[in-house]
Amino acid sequence: MAERTEPAGTKGFLFCDLRGYTAFIEHHGDQAAAELLATYRHLVRSAIAPHAGAEIRTEGDSVYVVFPAASSAVEAGLAIVAAATDESTKDAPIRVGVGIHAGETVATTEGLVGGAVNIAARVCAKAQAGEVLVTDTVRALTRTYLPYRYTSLGTQQLKGIAGGIPLYRVEAIPSSRRARLRRQLGARRGRVLVLYWVRSGRSGSRDGGLCAQPPGRLPVSARVHQGRRGQDRPGPQLRRRDASRRAAAGADRCGGWFDLGCQRR
Fold it and tell me: pLDDT for 12-62, tens place per residue?
């Protein structure tokens, strides 16, 4: 009796893997490779979770994820590449290539089956380190919805796929980077940045620093001033733990200001 199947609707399919992973194993050994792989898988899972990505299969350095929409797959792909860039070090580089396609598939007891999955895997094989490549199908579905740049790479021949398929490189444009930064800063709004200085008992010398406190947890002696973001601040900026330690030592005078964004580093 034939297995019963039903349409799964249009989904976004993402494949990603590490570039140069085999060479990394040869040069650094199995233990270092295992640690690199664990870091890579963690950042991929962290990147796909906010976009409702379902991890279908992970084999070696290859990860296959399904999304409810093509736009979600593109957002997650860019997040993966950005996270890989942030986590990379000279000794443990995380070079990720991402390929995305969208289309109809058939839902079976073994998972989603269809040509769209195969195309996504082949697109990933074309992606260089740090690239997110998508098909013309994905571009058509998302180009007026997502604030990203789509750069044409021309028609590409994909292994095992009849005929050529136009591919595009997706890149975050400056305006979208600023929008993402604003969202990140939004999570920190409402904190109070406190500039303090500590005068030692006998010498009268001063030491200063910058610490952050939630509203309502300022020291009693704090004086709050209004200040514009990015303006110069007196006194050396110290790490938060140093600020807390020195403040606990007994500050007899301190000042600060509300800043609804984030201090300039």
Answer: 999 999 999 999 999 999 999 999 999 999 999 999 999 999 999 999 899
Number of domains in the chain: 2
Q: Are 145 and 71 in contact (CB under 8 A)?
A: yes
Q: Which of 91, 139, 82, 106 is nearest to 4 (CA)?
A: 106
Q: Which backbone phi and psi does 79 adopt, to 5 degrees?
A: -65, -40
The pTM (predicted TM-score) of the whole model is 0.65
Boundary-marking domain end, from 127, 155, 184: 184
Task: Look up the CATH number of the domain holding residue 115.
Answer: 3.30.70.1230
Whole-angstrom Cα distance, residue 213 to residue 3?
Answer: 60
User: Terminal CA-to-CA distance of the chain, rounded, Å?
Assistant: 66
DSSP character for 116? H
CA 203, CA 234: separation in Å to the nearest integer? 20
Q: Which amino acid does the sequence have at 264?
A: R
Q: What are residue 67's DSSP bridge partners?
A: 12
What does R_g of the chain's alpha carbons equal in angstroms? 25
Question: Is residue 151, in this structure, part of any structural domain at all?
Answer: yes
The set of residues, in sequence order, having a beta carbon less than 8 Å from that of 140 and lying 6+ positions away, is none
Domain that holds residue 239: 188-258
Q: Which two tokens stand for residue 197?
A: 């200085």
CA distances from 188 to 139, 175, 179, 232, 245 (A): 33, 20, 15, 21, 23
Do 112 and 168 lie in a common domain? yes
